């Protein structure tokens, strides 16, 4: 049977047409003569009302039409008298696909906590909040491809299983094909990877960058958009063990070109959301405001969702060196509000999210691009500056989130790169495949990584990164 999506019906309002709608019942109100069924099919945040004549359908059918049940309703679309809806379907036939015991159905028509919903992976997606987030997530993914495609970038898939650890942070998950009870040992008692499937230590990728660089040195402008894995042993609201990353890599780009592209992309994505996800964003904004009412004054958001999106769209991002930022953080210490009390910083330290948010929300009141970080807190591949202390790194900082993008100009000079790798104890010989990029026709190049979930967090206003991915992977949780 042909199904019409509720989204399409509400957009087009084909009054008088005969339609079949299929979806899940949100609520049913029955009077003596008619039943009003609020139906949702996931295509939009809005429900449509299906009106069923009690006498015509009889108790037998209508008692199966309960909250959570899935049905098909065929009938004629008519203009609605009721407030808040423009049209409704007068049912001529109703088919119940799957019943849902109203006593047992976990989604009662009350508000559930996000923590509770995380425990019911399937039905979580059926709530207004999560279906709205997932539609926004879809639109953002689409917009990413659109943005890069319009710019002539090529979408490249980098491997998920790899032997490299681009970030060198020791957060890579190991991949092995050993039987657990028969791990082959070498003479020193260590694991003998030569006997494993890849004959080499393998892990899940922490970043597609190194392979992305190879592609950029051939196709000039590429991007990856794939899953990334990090054994983040911390429970924060902005880290997942499995997340998606967008990583463009560009030959012939210096650090400034890199910043320009990143800023343009972020604004494009925000604008795309405003233009294409209005209903879902309006719902999420209202939701965030209601949540806020239950919080103590000091923890409430200073901007509404729309204001935050405009904050990104309408401001030139402030470009500040790491060294200047440290000076600001040091100076700002005495007049601290409680929210930002740990501002003591020394040159050389990595910034915590609260330092990042202080710079954005309190000091500059703009999105911030911090660049030229100390060499010693950044990865080996970043381009060394002439001061001998800093590298051409850049992080983009957003309100409510902190770091949303990390990027850099890459070290394209073979001698400098080799020297740095040796100093950091990275086996240069084993990375010959990577060194080839500097060996033959090396060029200045740059790139960055955008954490897709952090972007969705920003756009939807969700406080916890676990709530913007359908199936979050965090310490102790890989079941659903
Ligand atoms: P953080 O300082 O927050 O741990 P990072 O500096 O380790 O992030 P990068 O290696 O720079 O992260 O990765 C690029 C981007 O990927 C980050 O700017 C962020 O948006 C995202 N990201 C990094 N780690 C995670 C994670 N565990 N979960 C979700 N997104 C992440
Ligand atoms: Mg990290
Ligand atoms: Mg960081
Ligand atoms: Mg980073």
UniProtKB/TrEMBL annotation:
Primary localization: cytoplasm
Enzyme Commission number, as recorded: 6.1.1.22
Gene that encodes the chain: asnS
Database matches in InterPro entries: Aa-tRNA-synt_II, aa-tRNA-synth_II, aa-tRNA-synth_II/BPL/LPL, Asn-tRNA-ligase, Asp/Asn-tRNA-synth_IIb, NA-bd_OB-fold, NA-bd_OB_tRNA
Domain Aminoacyl-transfer RNA synthetases class-II family profile: 134-470
Pfam entry (one): tRNA_anti-codon
Coiled-coil intervals: 274-301
Name of the protein in question: Asparagine--tRNA ligase
Alphabetical UniProt keywords: Aminoacyl-tRNA synthetase, ATP-binding, Coiled coil, Cytoplasm, Ligase, Nucleotide-binding, Protein biosynthesis
Catalytic activity: tRNA(Asn) + L-asparagine + ATP = L-asparaginyl-tRNA(Asn) + AMP + diphosphate + H(+)
Compartments, record wording: Cytoplasm
Family, per entry: Belongs to the class-II aminoacyl-tRNA synthetase family.
Subunit organization: Homodimer.
